[in-house]
Predict the 3D structure of the following.
Amino acid sequence: MKSIIIILALFISLGTACKTKKSATATTSSTTSTSASVHTGDTGTSATGNNEGINTGKISHKYHATGCETVIIIHSEDGSEITLIPKDKLSNDVDMDGQLIRFDYRTLKMPQPAGCNVGMPAEITNITKLK
């Protein structure tokens, strides 16, 4: 009888300890997601790697010959170039070579379309023409 009570107490204390650790992890992740909303401006990236927010880029068809229909090129403050491959076809009034746009994007973990050797697939939303 005494061993049953000890085993029961052990399981209760382990169960309580595990639940406490999960709560602490949930609190930490909510704090992290709150800080992920800090943006560096129109550069296309943010301080924490989250790509949400307004970005400025230029539509380009320079890879059309290799099979990559449309790409969006973002120039960052440090001079590097980010090339995005839109997952969905852009509307005809926006899909013009050299068109400047403001947009939100989210990179996708999917293979690049056939012929596209440059850039990363992305979901493009909230597109606004600048010119």
